[in-house]
Q: What sequence folds into this?
């Protein structure tokens, strides 16, 4: 994840290089049995104040890249160094992709996707 700045209550927060957004998905075919997304920060990244006003969303798109389902996470106003979210198992109607998105202050900052194929 590249370094970026954002504002919280007039204070500039800086997210340093050294943080990684990961998306784990398990299952077979169009059945997703486990899904998790979150941020891991290395030594330098772990020294920051964390992510404030964060939310993690999961989206699902068909092979034509049309999003047909979104699982929007709650917005967390507390600052957290390691935001994470699990999502419920999914039975997908289409092959395509499953993505996780980290939003800070309502702005999508990073995404990671997995292609779901036969």
A:
């Amino acid at each position: 994840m590249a370094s970026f700045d954002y504002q919280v209550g007039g204070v500039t927060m800086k997210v340093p290089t050294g943080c990684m957004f990961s998306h784990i998905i398990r299952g077979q075919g169009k059945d997703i049995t486990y899904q998790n997304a979150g941020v891991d920060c290395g030594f330098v990244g772990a020294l920051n104040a964390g992510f404030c006003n964060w939310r993690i969303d999961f989206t699902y798109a068909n092979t034509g890249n049309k999003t047909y389902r979104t699982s929007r996470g709650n917005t967390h106003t507390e600052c957290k160094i390691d935001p994470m979210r699990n999502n419920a198992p999914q039975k997908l109607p289409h092959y395509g992709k499953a993505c996780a998105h980290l939003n800070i202050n309502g702005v999508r900052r990073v995404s990671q996707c997995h292609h779901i194929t036969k």
Summary: The chain has a mean pLDDT of 85. The chain is about 0% helix and 60% strand. The first strand starts at residue 4 and ends at 8. Strands lie at 4-8, 11-15, 19-28, 31-41, 54-62, 67-71, 84-87, 90-91, 96-104, 107-116.
